[in-house]
Design a protein that fits this description.
CATH architecture of the largest domain in chain A: 3-Layer(aba) Sandwich
Organism (chains A, B): Actinophytocola gossypii
Pfam family, one (chains A, B): UTRA
Helix content of chain A: 10-25%
Number of strands of chain A: 10
Largest interface: A-B, 53 and 53 residues
CATH superfamily of the largest domain in chain A: Chorismate lyase-like
Distance between the termini of chain A: 52 Å
Largest sheet of chain A: 6 strands, antiparallel
Keywords (chains A, B): DNA-binding, Transcription, Transcription regulation
Oligomer: homodimer
Structural class of chain A: alpha+beta
Protein name (chains A, B): GntR family transcriptional regulator
Number of domains of chain A: 2
Strand content of chain A: 25-35%
Strand order of the largest sheet of chain A: 4-5-6-9-8-7
InterPro entries (chains A, B): Bact_HTH_transcr_reg, Chorismate_lyase_/UTRA_dom_sf, Tscrpt_reg_HTH_GntR, UTRA, WH-like_DNA-bd_sf, WH_DNA-bd_sf
Chain lengths: 255, 255
DNA sequence: GCACTGTAGTCCTCATGAGGACTTGACGTC
DNA sequence: GACGTCAAGTCCTCATGAGGACTACAGTGC
């Protein structure tokens, strides 16, 4: 894999990566100290650090100052791309059901540019509920989210508290607004984590995240809810299953 | 944004990033030489290089040895997540239609582990058509793809040539197999680009890519086609629109 | 028992210095 | 005019050296 003429730091990175892939050190465990690696590979400290930097940006390892460098556990969480509305399926592959929901805040906020651009003019006063999901197995945050709800329906209701809602959020909105969720648009993007996301998701800076923006509309096209979800990009898999009859409009060979 | 006690390389990176965001230098243009930056910021060369390294892993800039460091054009290409089967919509936001199609190869290959795991036993002999999409405006590759087709249907047919197919690929397979595409599973992942992808997509090493694995099945559940598509993660947006009536199975409030 | 302190081990920052590899373009030769 | 050569400018690699910041833990004093 590595050519003989590759730079030292690259060869060291390759060596360590393949060792990790073979289980030494195993996920979660500590790597040898930088000074040990200097001795082992017979190179200088900056070279070792450059090699570790490669693995760090790849998400293979993670360093904590004063403690050590650790092998990251990169098992991926499985998400269903349209599972927001709880279609009844008991798919054991979906790990997200076990996640603990935690409401960070629930208060009126000025919507950011990208969100307010999607809103109808009269609904620009909004309530924002921010949530975080913790994986109870690893005790690590796996998802960050925000729901932007039209103020006219939700101001002064129980949604303005940080309590966990009694039933699915969209059902609450339907009750409060008297309208039905009938259409949705999803937008998926990969981008660098913001400082806030780095903190809340406990990620190394510069990590990529998957960002989903979900817009739900009523029959009259007004926006009932906009929600955002953010996951660490290297810890998530998005699954989608569908019938093609709906997708294939006409087969030319039949015309 | 940057605290006063942030390390030098971080402050330099922040300064350059915000300048770039404000248009200097503009996308595609050259950055000042590293030695110029050394003088401007009054730091050493490794520090400047570390700052540029941050921007490089963020995808903001790109360096070419012997030539210079350039601001990357990070406009994103829009993709529809289920548009593979050409549902007739004339959405001007979709830029992909303008892409130039290029068949790299079309020959029998040993399927990789992840693919053959999805295949039925008798169809493990497959034809692989590899394609690349070029954006004629920028003349840059935007997408890399591979279609894994069951050998029993396609060996010896025109699909074994690198010619562009006369009609949509799935229609060809339907004709040749006598079966219909009725169901599909999509799997989306973000991962580091392989060496091959770095070459073919002309990316800096270590870049993240979005990887879609699409499995299409017939009514009897046999696999008709597996296709993979790979895009640079920071140059793509995935869009999806759908009716919620299909998704929301039952509203408890009505029970 | 508790709180504080010091120390060792760890990763992080940054300077200096040197050589190499790659690209471009000017120049000279044929 | 075509081709090869050379030099300048660029980014890339790597060593050495030093200091700092952070964490965990053992020991001390109360």
């Amino acid at each position: 894999m590595t050519s003989a003429r590759a730079p030292k730091y690259q060869r060291i990175a390759d060596a360590l990566r393949s060792e990790i892939r073979n289980g030494t050190p195993p996920a979660g465990e500590r790597m040898p100290a930088e000074t040990d690696l200097v001795e082992r590979f017979g190179v200088s400290l900056p070279t070792v650090r450059q090699a570790l930097g490669v693995l760090r940006t790849e998400g293979v390892i993670e360093s904590r100052q004063g403690i050590g460098t650790f092998v990251r556990d990169n098992r991926r969480l499985q998400r269903r791309s349209r599972n927001r509305y709880g279609r009844a399926r008991d798919d054991k592959k979906l790990l997200t059901a076990h996640l603990r929901h935690e409401i960070i805040s629930a208060q009126p906020e000025e919507p950011p540019q990208e969100i307010s651009a999607l809103l109808d003019e009269p609904t620009k006063r909004i309530l924002v509920r921010r949530r975080r999901l913790i994986n109870p197995d690893t005790n690590r945050p796996e998802e960050l989210g925000a729901s932007y709800l039209p103020g006219e329906y939700v101001f002064g209701t129980f949604l303005e508290t940080t309590d966990v809602v009694p039933k699915a959020l969209f059902l609450c909105i339907e009750d409060l607004s008297g309208k039905r969720y009938v259409r949705a648009e999803d937008k998926w993007q990969v981008r660098i984590a913001s400082d806030d996301e780095v903190d809340r998701l406990e990620l190394p800076t510069g990590t990529n995240v998957v960002h989903l923006t979900h817009v739900a509309r009523a029959a009259d096209d007004t926006v009932l809810e906009i929600s955002e979800s953010v996951w660490p990009a290297d810890r998530v898999v998005i699954l989608d299953e569908y019938d093609l009859n709906d997708e294939i409009s006409a087969r030319p060979s039949e015309v």
